[in-house]
Amino acid sequence: KGELRMQSLTFDDAGMYQCIAENMHGIIYANAELKIVASPPTFELNPMKKKILAAKGGRVIIECKPKAAPKPKFSWSKGTELLSIRIWDDGSLEIINVTKLDEGRYTCFAENNRGKANSTGVLEMTEATRITLAPLNVDVTVGENATMQCIASHDPTLDLTFIWSLNGFVIDFEKEHEHYERNVMV
């Protein structure tokens, strides 16, 4: 098949490998470098977010993505309590049906045969955004104008943006200002 398989690699296996394919019409070469990587976990390039927001009653995934080789084993704590629920293979922690009790300091621990590291972030719960007045179906005659309303409640500490789309495509009010008008009620 022209395949080279290597098992139980060590640092001595690193280097430039060359494949030579040859027949009666000629010879051709291809090169590839094999790097052997081994490093303890580190969060220097990808630390956990310091502040994680989660909507009340919603779902949140707190990511834990250290650089490490080989892949580390993960564990989590909330404050001083070790957690063992909903830890994904990539190290992320999932919390469903978020309540006030879920707020707090979360720490991800990553460990491999080269070392260990951890990173911490704070989870804060916000009020969920809800549509309180949804647009209604409208029948209009050609040439007439139509108005559609959308009103939402949201956590006062967060900004709210309304985005309108038509048949799955976001309406660009800058380009289509002759046809669409956005009215913002305070």
TrEMBL record:
Broad class of where this protein is predominantly found: membrane
Record's signal peptide: none
Domain Ig-like: 41-124
GO molecular function: cell-cell adhesion mediator activity
Pfam families for the chain: Ig_3
Keywords: Disulfide bond, Glycoprotein, Immunoglobulin domain, Membrane, Repeat
Gene Ontology CC terms, in alphabetical order: axon; plasma membrane
Compartments in which it is found: Membrane
GO terms under biological process: axon guidance; dendrite self-avoidance; homophilic cell adhesion via plasma membrane adhesion molecules
InterPro entries linked to this entry: Ig-like_dom, Ig-like_dom_sf, Ig-like_fold, Ig_sub, Ig_sub2
Protein name: CNTN1 protein
Organism: Mystacornis crossleyi
Lineage, top ranks: Eukaryota, Metazoa, Chordata, Craniata, Vertebrata
